[in-house]
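User: I'll paste a sequence; please echo it back and then give the predicted structure.

Assistant: Echoing your sequence first, then the prediction.
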Amino acid sequence: KESYGSRCFGLKSSPFFSLREKNSYRLIFGHNMYGMHNRANYGKLLGTLFLSLDLNKSNLILPDNKKEFTYFILVDDNGNSFSFNGKKVIKDEILSELGEPSEKADSKLIFLETPNYLIYKSRISDKPLTVITALDKHSITAEVRFTTFVIISVTLLSLTIIALLMRSILRNIVTPLKKLSIHIENLKEISP
């Protein structure tokens, strides 16, 4: 079928693409090429250009694998999926909690809450791809607990330092001034 513009074929796996890695997926795009300069071939289909992107070698800056609590997954309409970060076990767990991730829908952002994850799902317009972002609830609450502990500790330490400074000011400045004031009042009463 002749078509104009680029077409996305989704995620494809083949030993041709990667001899070393089993189940290595690539994102495949195709674009028909037409003659433009030679009058005899002007407008005629000359061939098709294919672009194969190895997602394992992408330069995306994603959260560190050591602090895994945000996961990014790309799913095509055939059910093939690629996890940009995270292990296969986690990807499979997220996809099983999600159900059917590649439902053909519009490109609006869909939010789902499961027992373990907060999942955001968005369809890429005019492409057979869905992007899934999953946030691990347990890791998020652990981060919040740690941050709350740090904030409370710093606040209590600050209040303790302020209380000690106020006590020092009271003992070293206010009390001597009060004694001086009382002494001056006594001197006023004695002198004629």
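The radius of gyration is 34 Å. The helical segments are 88-98, 137-190.
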